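User: Continuing from earlier, I have the next pair ready.

Assistant: Great, send them over.

User: Here they are, in order.

Assistant: Folding the first of the pair now:
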Amino acid sequence: MNQTDLIVIGAGPAGMMAAITAAQRGKSVLLLERNPRPGRKLLITGKGRCNVTNNCGQDALLANIPRNPRFLYSAFARFSTADTIAFFESRGLPLKTERGSRVFPQSDRAADVLAVLERALRELNVPVINARVSSLLIDEEQKTVLGVRCGDGREFRAAATLLACGGMSYPQTGSTGDGYALAAQAGHRIIPPVPSLIPILTEEKEPREMQGLSLKNVTLTVYRGEKPVFSELGELLFTHFGVSGPLVLSASAHMEGQKPEGPCTAAFCATMLKGKGYRLSIDWKPGLSEEQLDRRLLRDFAKFQNKDAVNSLGELLPRKAIPVLLRRAGIPLEEKVNRITKEQRRRLLETLKGYALTPVGFRPIEEAIITSGGVDVREVNPKTMASKLASGLYFAGELLDVDGYTGGFNLQIAFATGVLAGEGC
């Protein structure tokens, strides 16, 4: 058995930041990671560029946390987005702010972000041991966590144990839900994990016809009943199962599906939005009013009046989308343009300004950028990240039932809770 001040389970952004914070305060820290090296998931964030944080104030930051934002108030007050920027830049990594206040390394390399964290661990003499934790060592009488037992039989003991194991997204990076079982062993309630920031499956098969078509500068609006719950301008991708792309990932975080009673299987994810009353609406030409778009249609129809309808919209729309949109508007593809009626043109205009799709579910949780759900934050002290149920146990990162929208908010959660937990330990 080995004795240390703090054991951190999980060498992701939250775990590494917690280990660095505690070691800076003179504590002996042991970092356990089931992968051969730390930060595997960090390397794929932001499409390999790593959206480190969002350069915004605390009010805007909290507004971009849909689940339990108040729980994070102390963490963000202690370690703000400005603190995250200063942490990396003071260690030799220049950052830049892009559209939507998203912060990236100037090199556009996630590996450079990871290198800063790994270098800090080395300088502070924090050992990273390749080991998968199978259970906590708990004094049941005292309700105290004493350390951990690994799958290979090794035991490590510490005054404090921090769970920063991540959720269930991208299991190939090590996020396989181990942390939920460990937290439950200590008596914690787990809010059933579901996917968030995830592509959406649609009832309609039309997206399959447009598979691979990427749209820029379109507006996606999500309605629940007649109430809009999300609307944003950006990029969208049609796929064989429905829709994906940055707009769709952001929209998914605003859509509450059914909760699983057991494991969140792919079959469950694929139907979890059924009966929830959601509707997707795509405005293909948000820069044009209905009147302006109607005038544009009239010009194109006059220009190509002797052509078939399917050959008349190539200057306005992607070719792959034209047959789908014409059929949706009830216009035969071979209809001569000079025979298209005013009513047909009106239906086409309505289709272009509000192309509707019916979401039925999400892709499997393994494909989600983050997991929604996790350790019930009512059982965690928000000022220290300490367990309220077992002394010596702490939490940080995605394992907690908090999550943010795209834009660097989830990494900010990881860094801020990691710092607070490292200090709390």
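And the other member of the pair:
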Amino acid sequence: MNKLIINHLFEFWEQIGKHGGFLRNEDGFSVTYPLNNSWPNKIFDLDPNNLNLYKLQDSIRIKAAPNSIAIYEDNAIKNILEANQFISCSTIKAMALDTTGVFFDEVDDTEFKIVTTKEEAELFAQVASESFGYLVEASTIIPLIDKPSFKIILGKHDEDIPTCGMIYIDKNGVAGIHMIGTKAGYRGLGLGKKMTRFLINQSVEAQSSKVFLVASVAGERIYTKMGFTPHGVLESYSLPLD
């Protein structure tokens, strides 16, 4: 299950990069490197049988690729990276929810807005950037608004729009929920939980039998209470630079 969840994430990044024009498929690895080193800036989908380590290292050193490599749990890949100066820098949980019998009836759909215009995509990028503390370019979001595999969501509260979230339906018809964020001044109000429940309901309506996500340690506790189960981790590696 770990590989399924992480491969879903890799496909998500790949499609964002493809639609945004910043995906590169290199010798044994893929790269998304959007404008201004913004999200999603990742090296991923390493193929240990075809990996050109010298090209990988050189791309990072000359800043032609981000210094962040994401891998699923695979000892062969880890051993190659660790034998070639790369170090593990973070892990986050891979999680899945079986949607059988799951639907949150208390969710008020009028509190959410599905992004359909350039202006709404620009607002999504702004809310996401403020929520996560890293840059999300509007030029990354705009190409996704008419793609059937993506559903981009804004959450309302009073007169503001302080939350965001995204659904991606992969080639196997499985939904993943991504980019669930809340602006700092609105945290602690349960808005992130509302957004998550709305995204799950939308995934159920899309007839996805499971919902995938990756979560921080703090997020894991929240998602476990909602019925998600952990299935290993997503690991990130970087190359020490002078």
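Worth noting for the second one:
Residues 71 and 78 are 8 Å apart (CA to CA). The chain is about 35% helix and 30% strand.
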